[in-house]
C-alpha cells in the first residue's frame, strides 16, 4: 500500500510539465529556502542570550525586565504556534512562511533601533509571533513537497540546518557584541530575512491541500491560546513564586481547566482547530510526548552546562560556545544520517537507541567537576548530539508524517509547541531541583569550611549566586577566605547540577520507553497542490 502511495505521489509531481515546474516547487530547493528561514529563527534563539548582559547595561534594565526579553518571546511562540499552523493550512504555507520571515526580520530591525527595554520586549513578542508563523509553515512545505520515502531525509537536513545555526549563535553573538554592538545581533537577521524572501518568491510553490477547510475555530483558538499562556507563564514564574504558591497553582490549574474546555469544544466544533482524531494515531501521540520529554531533558540540562562552563570553569561566552561544538557538530552531521537510517528501517529503533545514548551521556555529565578534562567533556557532548539527532528527526517525522496533508501546518505547530513546552518545563523543573539541592547542601559546606556566618537576608543572595555557579566575594576579602568561598560555591553548584542531570537522564530513559510506541507515518496521501 505504501509503495502505491509513493508511486502515486511521484506520478503527481512528474505530471507537472517541466516548463511549469522549472525551479519553482523543486523539493531540494524548497528545502534550501525553508532551511535559510528556519536558521534565522534558530540563530536568534542562542545569539540573543549572549547579548542580554549588554542590553541590560546599555538600557539600564532590571533583571526582571531582561528576563522578559526571553520570556516574552517564548510566550508568544507557545500561544500562537498551533493557530499559526492552521493559518498555513488555510491560506497556504508559502504565503504564511514568507510573512513570518519578513515580519521576523522587520521586528529584529525594530529591536536594534529601540531606545528602551520596554520597546525591546514589545518587539521580541512580535518576533515570537512571526517566528510562530514561519516554523509550522516550514514543516508544512516539506510535508507537501517531498514524497513519503524522502521526507525523513528532508527533515534530517532541516534538523542539521538548525544545528548549524544553534552552534553558530554563541560564537557569532559573542563576536558581534564584543566588536560591534548588541544591536548588531538583531540587525544580522535583516539580510537573512531578505534572502529568504527572495528565494521564497522564486522557489516556493504554494502547496495548499484540497481539503484545507474554509473557516476558523475562533472559540478553539481563544481557549487554546489562553490555556497555553497560563501554562507557560505559570511554568516560567514557578521558580520565583514557588511551585506550591497560590499564584503558581492558579495559573497551572487554570491551564488545565481551559485545556479540558478546549478538548470538549473540539468534539463539538464543525471545523476544529486541532481535530482530536489526530490522536487516534498512537504513533503521533507518542511522538508528541517524546518531543516534550526529549526537550525537557535537553534544554533543562543545557541550561546548567552554560553556567558550568562560564562561571565554574571561567570560560568566556565564545570559549563556552566552542566547547559545545562537539555536540552541535554531531547534531549537524547526525540529523541527515538519522533521516537516511529512519527512511530505511523506520523510526522505532533509532529513536530508542538515541534516547538510551542520551541518557548515558546525561548520567556521565552528572559526574562533572571543576577538573573534568576537555576530552571527557567533549565525549559526553558528542554522545548527547549523537543521541538527540535520531530523536529530533524521528519524532518530527512521526508527528508531521502521521497527520493528513491538509493538517500538516497544525501538525507542525503541534511539534513546535511540544518543543517549547518541554524546554520551558525542563528549565523550570530542573531549576527547582537545582535550587532545592543547593539550599540543602550549602549551609553544611559553608559551616564545614569555617566561613563567617551570614544573615538570612545575605543568605538569600548567596544562594541565588551559587545556583548559577557564581562565588559572591566582596571587595577586600582575604585571598584564603575568597578561595574557600569559591570552593564552597562551586561544590554546592556541582552537587545541584549532578542531581539535575540525573533527573534528566531518568526522563530520557522514560522517553526511550515511549519510543517503543512509534512507527513511520501511515496516513500520507501525497502532496495535493494548487498551482
Describe this structure as you would to a colleague.
- This protein has helices at 2-14, 18-21, 27-58, 63-91, 93-113, 117-145, 148-179, 184-187, 189-203, 218-241, 246-268, 282-312, 317-323, 325-345, 348-365, 374-401, 408-448, 456-466, 479-514.
- It is 79% helix and 0% strand.
- The relative contact order is 0.14.
- Helix 3 (27-58) packs antiparallel against helix 6 (117-145) and helix 5 (93-113) packs antiparallel against helix 9 (189-203).
- Mean pLDDT is 78; it is low at 1-21 and 523-531.
Report the sheet with the most strands, covering strand number, pairing sense and barrel closure: none
End-to-end separation in angstroms reads: 27 Å
Beta strand count: 0
What is the ordering of alpha helices and beta strands? Answer: HHHHHHHHHHHHHHHHHHH
Q: How many individual helices?
A: 19
Oligomeric state of the chains? single chain
Radius of gyration: 23 Å
- Spans with pLDDT under 50 lasting ≥5 residues? 1-21, 523-531
Structural class label: mainly alpha
Percent of residues in helices: over 70%
Approximate shape: globular
